[in-house]
C-alpha cells in the first residue's frame, strides 16, 4: 500500500525535477535555486550559475553518479565520493565532485 510522507526541502524556489535512484532508496531534486540536493543523507551543493531544470541518476553499474542540466547552458555529471570512516561503526564523509561539464553557447539545456 502507498504511504505518503512529507518532505521539507531546503529549496528557496520552485522544484523543477525529482529523480529516484535505481533502487528507489535515494532521491535527488533540483530547482531555481541553482543547486541540486540529494535526500539520502541530505547533501546540497552549488553546481550551476542558473536554475537547474533536470536531474537524473546513472545506472548503478556506473557508480553513484548524477547528471544535471541548467539554464546557464551547461550539463554536468557528478560523482559521489565516500571518504574513509574515522572509527569503527562510523560512516565515511560523502561529497559530490563534478566529473565533466558540457557547454552549449546557444540556449539553455
From TrEMBL:
Predominant cellular place of this UniProt entry's protein: other
Similarity remark: Belongs to the WD repeat SEC13 family.
Any one Gene Ontology cellular component term annotated for this protein: Seh1-associated complex
A UniProt-annotated Pfam family: WD40
SUPFAM superfamilies referenced in this protein's UniProt entry, alphabetically: WD40 repeat-like
Organism from which the protein derives: Aphidius gifuensis (Parasitoid wasp)
Taxonomic path: Eukaryota, Metazoa, Ecdysozoa, Arthropoda, Hexapoda
Cellular localisation: Lysosome; Nucleus envelope
Highest taxon of the lineage: Eukaryota
Coiled-coil zones: none
SMART domains per UniProt: WD40 (SM00320)
PANTHER family per UniProt: NUCLEAR PORE COMPLEX PROTEIN SEC13 / SEH1 FAMILY MEMBER, NUCLEOPORIN SEH1
Name of the protein this chain belongs to: Uncharacterized protein
GO terms, molecular function: structural molecule activity
One example of a Gene Ontology biological process annotation: protein transport
Keywords, ordered alphabetically: Lysosome, Nucleus, Protein transport, Repeat, Transport, WD repeat
InterPro entries: Sec13/Seh1_fam, WD40/YVTN_repeat-like_dom_sf, WD40_repeat_dom_sf, WD40_rpt
Amino acid at each position: 500500500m502507498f504511504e505518503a510522507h512529507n518532505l521539507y526541502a531546503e529549496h528557496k524556489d520552485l522544484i523543477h525535477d525529482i529523480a529516484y535512484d535505481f533502487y528507489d532508496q535515494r532521491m535527488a531534486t533540483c530547482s531555481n535555486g541553482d543547486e541540486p540536493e540529494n535526500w539520502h543523507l541530505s547533501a546540497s551543493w552549488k553546481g550551476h550559475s542558473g536554475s537547474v531544470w533536470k536531474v537524473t541518476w546513472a545506472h548503478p553499474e556506473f557508480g553513484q553518479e548524477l547528471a544535471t542540466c541548467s539554464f546557464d547552458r551547461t550539463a554536468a555529471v557528478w560523482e559521489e565520493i565516500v571518504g574513509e570512516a574515522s572509527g569503527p561503526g562510523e560512516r565515511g564523509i560523502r561529497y559530490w565532485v563534478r566529473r565533466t561539464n558540457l557547454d552549449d553557447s546557444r540556449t539553455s539545456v
